[in-house]
Hints:
The structure is a single chain. By secondary structure, this protein is α/β, with parallel strands linked by helices. The chain has a seven-stranded parallel sheet, sandwiched between helices. Strand 2, helix 24 and strand 3 (441-444) form a beta-alpha-beta unit.
Amino acid sequence: MIDNSISTLSVDWQQQAHKYLLQKNYGQAGNLYEQAIEAEPEIKSYYWYLGLMLLLQGQELEAQTTWLLGMADGELEEVEIETVELIQVLQTEAERQANLEDYSVAWAIRQHIREINPTDINNLLHLIGLSILLENYTGDQLNSLGVIEILKSEPPIEVDFLLLMEVLKSVLDRAPLHPSSLELAEACVAYAYEPHIFLQTVFQAALEIGAVLPQLAARFVEACARLDPEKLDILQRLAIMHHLATVYQSSRQYDKGIEVAKLCYSLAEELPDKVYGNHKILRGLLGATGYWEEVGEVIERHQAQLGLLVAQQSLSLDSVRTQNLFCTTFFFPYIQDRAETNRQIHNQVAQLCQANIQVYAKDRAERFRKGHLARKSSSESGKRLKIGYVSHCLGRHSVGWLARWLIQYHDRDRFQINGYFMAYVKGLDPLKEWYLELFDQSHKGGISGVEMAEKIYQDEVDILIDLDSLTLDVSCEVLGLKPAPIQVTWLGWDACGLPAVDYFIADPYVLPESAQDYYSEKIWRLPQTYIGVDGFEADTPTWRREDLNIPGDAVVYLSSQTGYKRHPHTARLQLKIIAQVPNSYFLIKGGADEEAVKRFFIELGEEEGVDCSRLRFLPQDPLESTHRANLGIADVVLDTYPYNGATTTLETLWMCIPLVTRVGEQFAARNSYTMMMNVGVEEGIAWTDEEYVEWGVRFGKDPTLRHVVSGRLRQSRQTSPLWNGKQFAREIEKAYEQMWQRYVEGQH
Length: 748
């Protein structure tokens, strides 16, 4: 018996069917549509909904049969219209299921839409997005579903731009290194109707990928460079060029990187952009090695323009320009050991940047300030402190290798330890994943300093430890907003100079006693050392003297540093040592332009009368553990100046190899000094250029001295505070508690 109420197509039964749908009572809803079809078989929408109810019950074949039945007697044009109607019904339900987070059902519905219309690009994009949400996306789906091919169609097809950008971002988050991810980004260029959205998405991916595979990052930024220039303003064009210069330089395509950096400078119209352009040029020239004459010209111009910028005290800089300016003083310590002068310009630029942050993020900064005051008034003495560590470098980076023991040894009864990972990329770095598990709470952030600052504030962090300083601009933006009542810089570099940073952690040696006169932060000196580790993993050596055509009885010197640290004055001193030690060889290793490094040392060597056949130029080792093992080929390591080694010095001392270092005024010129003092070895510490050469020659000519120092270094493994990560953790925890006590008592 047919329900007569159906025959009148009453609104009531349709509402009841919809109610059953919402209740997931698909069988009852299907019964109503069956009755409706029997009463009014000419109403095609009943077939579409009945098929949908069958599909939702897992009866896919029956659903398809029902839809075909609804189209069986129509003309071609009519069938096309009905197909559009059916797809609309399915799309609506797929969206509803996705909103309910029932992604598997939404995915199944969209698969049927694909069977009906396999080239519906928006539906295919939704399928990609759902695969990512279901965590079964591999990267292959972009090609297997035909997404890339369809997007490359000529002329370009119609596509939902915001959906396309959403899927692009999800793909780059999920599988940034898969070849299809780059293909998708390149295919999206033709559809980048709002370039700023596309640029923001791809730039973030390029920044994150660049830390692991800079050459791949360059390909992503090259895609941005293919955007229609008529759709870009000057700032967007500059942003592309700046990123391109960075990734070229990071991938050691130095000629390209320098060329693009110079183009950035020439395109810049405003002083802040010219300053940033200079910074990029310096980055390329110093990274390549051997361009010191040009470095001198650029640094002179750079200092003059920074002086003008500071004098202007412009408070109208947006977030991008402010972030760019943070790092523009980064290279001064590599060029000159003028501690007070360098600190003054660091502090002035940082102060200007923070002043701009307080303007463009005024409401947030003020809310943070008031929140800290409210918390302070209710603070309990002796409470469990919440410590936050913010960094981009907690992974396979010097900071990541050195911070391991502190995080591991933290007393969790007295401290909650949170990690805030800037520019996080999933699954590319095992050490980073290790850190994620070690923190009590871990937050994976992107490249927005404002967003990360908000998270830190919401977590009510008591003391925020900055591990990046000027090495990452967005970390500086985080600190400038002051999301924690106490902020401290440690380990990653020298102090950043921001007024919002309260303390800079040092020790008795790494800064001279007069340093407080020119630091804006309060220098907090730990009693012995500002870093403590339990040692380093070393693999099997891959270098042998015979492989390098070096006699077994030769004296081997080694210098293993980045191009930034290859100052010509110190390189000349190193070659003077080689010239004075018979049967000596000099191994030169580190990231730079290989040919430029060779020219640089050979030209200096010829001037110093060194037989350049005694120079060996070695590539970087693929793994840190291999690098450490290979240090054993050296009899003596020659440190750099005015920027010493830090991690490389620790590794050298741990491997028990004598080191010659030149001590200066600035933090960067005293790293090796403090480490040597803390292992109880003063042989090799030079306070003048002459002493540097003398120690180098003495070590080369006196094997007994080398043996004695090596033995003391080996013994220090059991006695030195430098090799006691647990003791160091207790010392820095004591400092945190004292900082907090001073804050609560109003002495801060």
